[in-house]
Amino acid sequence: MSVAVTRPEVERFRAAIARRMGLEFDDAKLGLLGEVLRRRLATRHAGFSDYLATLERAPPPGECGALAEELTVTETYFFRNHQQFDALAAVVLPDRRERQPAPRRLRLLSAGCASGEEAYSLAIAAAEALSKSGWQADIHAADLNPAALAKAQQGRYTAWSLRETPPDIRRRWFTREGSRMAVDETIRRSVRFETVNLADPGAALWNAGGYDVIFCRNVLMYFSPEQRRAAIDRLAFSLLPGGYLFLGHAETLLGHSEAFRLHHTHDTFYYQLKETTEPAALAAPLLAPPARPTLSDSAWTDIIHTASERIALLLPKETPAPSAAPKGRGDLAPALDLLRRERFAEALAYVGGQAMAEDQDGLLLSAVLLQQSGRLDEAEQACQRLLALDGLSAGAHYVLALCRETAGDPADAAEHDRIAAYLDPAFAMPRLHLGLLARRSGDRAAARRDLTQALVLLENEQPSRLLLFGGGFNRQALTALCRAALQDSGGQP
Fold first, then answer.
1. pTM for this one?
2. 7-71 carries CATH number 1.10.155
3. What does 452-479 look like in DSSP terms, one character per residue?
4. CA 128 to each of CA 20, 102, 124, 168, 200: distance values in angstroms, whole numbers, following the listed order
């Protein structure tokens, strides 16, 4: 007999799942959660109050695993997003070998390994990259879903799971067993699977400086914001200084951590833990979700938005630049008004009166003003100083893209645009710039792709960001430019 549950009960169930497992579900998934809750109550022969109280306080053994079977996505395949494995083999593993001459063994973690394809792909990539060096790799693979882990430990897969696996790798590392493909025994022995709740701060998995490389792909995107930040701190805590973190292509550390620097090679993005980050410095957040960051790109644009809107309403058209040096971050507002009126020299003089050595806001505004004044070397220096403070600044990369284009290096300009667009997928300007660069190079297909995306993003771009990065053009002018370039590239404006 089906157990009836109410919406408040389902919402309490949702909150308990977010706390215990990190998983976040929006209102569209309440129906699914209600069905899962009914099944769990029936299976455990429990009333709602007792079951939820237990789940909130101390879930019984296996209960979170049973919920994971119902609520997590396990579809994956070998060498998914192969560019990341290319970067691992060509850049990351050689770098880790150089940094630690002994004991000639690297440790890799597949966090959220599902049915094992990622973990075995790591083992194969490492075996091939290290084969002539005498080094070995140990792969630790963790997931909460017991059914997925059972499949992983069997090491036998359908051809569909190998659909992106190169034929030579299939021949070397797999053997056919009936309708299945079996992973080579050498590879299987190098991987250790473990049932772990990645949202549990006390799990033994989180070992200070325990890993050279962590793959945690398409996991954090399902976590609540608080659990995501806490999990990122645990990942950083568990990496050796200089170790590497690979996320899913739709995931970013922007606004969540300043402990990493971004890399872009082999047409993919990945992160490296800064050498100055010691595991002990990251130990405290393991016990509780970290506080929200005090400054990020989004915080900065909010500041600009508030300031510029206030200035537009209150200041007369020809407000002279103040003679006294400002003292607070909010005092950048007059410089923004000068930027709006394209009085770059006065704005630079104003910003230059501030102590900007450790001020990310001032550095970003200074870089924009220097670039728009044609002082490209100084603009690039300001961007590099900003990236030294915040390696995930999309704004700094976009300004660098403009500088590199003006300097006659469109390839480097496009690289910085791609990084900016990755760091902040809602940022319209790097997409627009990429489209214009592609159009000029004759790549009409790439131009259509990027300009079409830029056109959508421009509709919702923040006024503050248009003020800062729009080069004096308003939303309507930028949209018209985008439409004209798109039409010229054979697209539909």
1. 0.73
2. yes
3. HHHHHHHHH--HHHHHHHSTT--HHHHH
4. 38, 20, 6, 12, 34
